[in-house]
Amino acid sequence: NGKYTVSLIEGDGIGTEISKAVKDIYHAAKVPIDWEVVDVTPTLVNGKTTIPDSAIESINRNKVALKGPLATPIGKGHVSMNLTLRRTFNLFANVRPCKSVVGYKTPYENVDTLLIRENTEGEYSGIEHTVVPGVVQSIKLITREASERVIRYAYEYALSRGMKKVLVVHKASIMKVSDGLFLEVARELAKEYPSIDLSVELIDNTCLRMVQDPALYRDVVMVMPNLYGDILSDLASGLIGGLGLTPSGNMGDEVSIFEAVHGSAPDIAGKGLANPTALLLSSVMMLRHMGLNDNATNIEQAVFGTIASGPENRTKDLKGTATTSHFAEQIIKRLK
Ligand code: IPM
Ligand code: MN
After folding, report:
1. Ligand nearest to the CA of 70
2. 75 C-alpha to ligand 2 centroid (Å)
3. Which residues neighbour 268 within 8 Å (Cβ) at sequence distance 6 or greater?
């Protein structure tokens, strides 16, 4: 029934089960998408982890991919495939919304944060070495180019959604040169966006204030260097019920890959315990990106309706008793 083709990386561990839930729900919702399942099993070429050409071609052709969790191979020479994908397709902005799920109570109410993480460099540049035994260096690489494109993305994101505030989260009090450059770029770009109010905040203070009162971060687009975004997005996720609930989009100029932020959870793989919500909500972000807004709303409301309908229809991570497939069936029943 496909008007569109999307590359699907099912992922390791629980990836198969949560991808199946997505495929079943999309089929039932009559979403006009054909899945092109791609294999991204890494190969080592000259000591560098590479993605199979067929996967690169599929994603370049379709421009949009949905991705389940990939295990990071342990051992010398292997880098995370998650990171390799981000870098290969130059997915410079990682958009991570986090919104309270009505019907799933946590100590926090009305959380609605939006975090944009620089996605290609910083501490994630992977430049590390031993100087002499017992002394190592990890390079935190910050460039004007990557800072500018992600900060511009944040301003544009705010503009296009009628949001009036951009907040840069940083630690330039200590990282004077690297975070200092990031801040400098944000201030320069602010001149091009006079309708948007730029503020800045130290990362430790953001953590403190966000757990005290997440409402302070409503209607704000937060943007920050890579590692801060990694950490703060988990914190935000914890406020609403965990990584089983939070989606993300890795955005580039050409290609976008939407992915669940959680890991492959090998301990529960194959047991029907996995929560597909994060992957489903990532796919909802994907649908909106593709302009399939009605399909997005349909699936999103069915997911939230199912979660709210009680613990018998929720997975274990949400204090429920439902299996992955029971949860998916309930979502299907709620589709319009
Ligand atoms: C995330 C994950 C990844 C990261 C891991 C799996 C490499 O934690 O997407 O937040 O650190 O970016
Ligand atoms: Mn993370």
Report:
1. 1
2. 20
3. 14, 274
